[in-house]
Please model this.
Amino acid sequence: MASFGELCFSPAEFANLARIDRSMLPLLEANGLLKTTKKKVGNVERKMIPMAELQNYFHAIREWHEIGRHGDHCAPIVSPESVASGSVATATAYVPMAPAHKIQMFYNVKGGTGKSTLTAQYVMRAAMMGLRVLAIDLDGQGHLTVNLDVLDGHERPTIYDVLINDLPIADAIMNVAPNLDLIPANLGLCNIEIPLNNKTRREYRLSEAIAKIAKNYDVIVADTNPAASILNGSMLVASGLVNVVCATNPLSFHGMSLVMATIEEMEREFARTLEVRIIPNMYDNREVISQEVLGELRAQFEGSCTKAVINRSADINEATKRRSTVWDVNPRGVAANDINHLTEELLYLQELPLQTVALATDLDTSSTASVSNIAQAAEHAASVNLLAQQALTGSEENASHTTELHS
Model:
């Protein structure tokens, strides 16, 4: 995946990914948190931020944040010092702390829902955020493997060798991009069901293997085969979060009852409670049927359906053809925006705030002072958000009153 590692971002694109105000970039450069480079675009040399610097930035702010405050998945990295003291006004930023669930899987017993494509875009976006990611391809078709630009998967060890031939799982892992490792798949994986069925503790072999290398990663994501198989059942035992991809068409929606029944049966059999997220995919707001299916998903699975919706987009198909991320195709397109929101929601199981709150930062303060400043920043942000919500509520009431007068 050479193209993934060589990606560069404009200052505006970097600021959007890092959720900071663009005016903060000179301060980050001055304090050594960010290095920019010149890249010729057409006949003009432009300031760009390489992929490595994007990842290093997230690493740096995560380490800085851990000095001051622990426990929040998303928290301001700024403190409200005055501009006169050398600080710079900026927008609320978030720190990509540990994901809510380290081990996740993308699942559906129906094929053609776009599961492998979404898995590939998800793991690449998580790697861009500076997280150490392991992707596991459990589908004999090997589409996740191909999406991550591994074309010689038939020559490489797979999870079959780990579970059946007792190959150490570390020997099946290959690096495909900065911060992104992969256990590939090939057609040989289609023959795993019978030998796996004859193994003792068959449902636990996969989780026990993953546990041996889990400490090396921030998030581990599996792409499963479209079937109610023993291998998929083993991954359900290992996972904490199940991401069910549902295309917004009638047949995919019809199959959701079988998917949820399978998950509930596994929960009962193994006395586990799984977090489930249903991802509406291939949505087209021009089609009435897409709107109806999306509405039914949100009505019947209100607590599980993600707020992020993946719209049908040529950018995703183009990224699949290039075997790279949508940011390599169109970093400001609808697909990049959808994948961005979906990744944040699945990692932290909450919708991150889209509104920004004006805060300030002084990177020269001591760590003890920084802890106090961060706490003040959080209180300040909360009060500003409360005022914003009150103003919004007031405007909605006024609009309602105006409507009544007109009627």
